[in-house]
Design a protein that fits this description.
By secondary structure, the chain is α+β, with helices and mostly antiparallel strands. 38% of the residues lie in helices and 11% in strands. The C terminus is likely disordered.
Length: 126
């Protein structure tokens, strides 16, 4: 989420076929993007390699099998990533472990804030 600017549902909708290893990015399908337009989200080469390796090792399927509260029928075939049902809960646990407050004088940190962080570092094509 931090490096893509994608929403949790968009991340959850990604399949292996959406990963473009030649152009180093993600093909975003109009069926699940908020603006209902196809697009391309560039990624760093290292992230594309890590995602490819994770898929080759079967990590997304293993994580859904081990941690998911959803029925097997609800899991996409060939998911690119494991995205929990409630990613904000994990995000808040990580903030606490890192000693980062959820709120400060500048506002509130939540999972959706990762989209803004991505926008500060690169152009987002969503």
């Amino acid at each position: 989420a931090l490096t893509t600017g994608l929403r949790a549902n968009e991340l959850r909708s990604l399949t292996v076929s959406d990963l473009d290893t030649q152009e180093n990015g993600l093909r975003l399908r109009k069926e699940w993007t908020k603006n209902r337009k196809e697009s391309f989200q560039p990624l760093t080469e290292i992230l594309v390699k890590c995602l490819s390796k994770s898929v080759q090792l079967g990590e997304p399927i293993d994580a859904y099998t081990k941690y998911s509260i959803w029925s097997p029928k609800a899991i996409l075939p060939n998911p690119l990533l494991y995205v929990p049902a409630h990613p904000a809960r994990g995000f808040h646990i990580d903030l606490k472990a890192a000693g980062i407050p959820k709120e400060n004088e500048e506002g509130k940190l939540d999972f959706h804030a990762l989209r803004n962080t991505c926008g500060l570092n690169s152009e987002v094509h969503v």
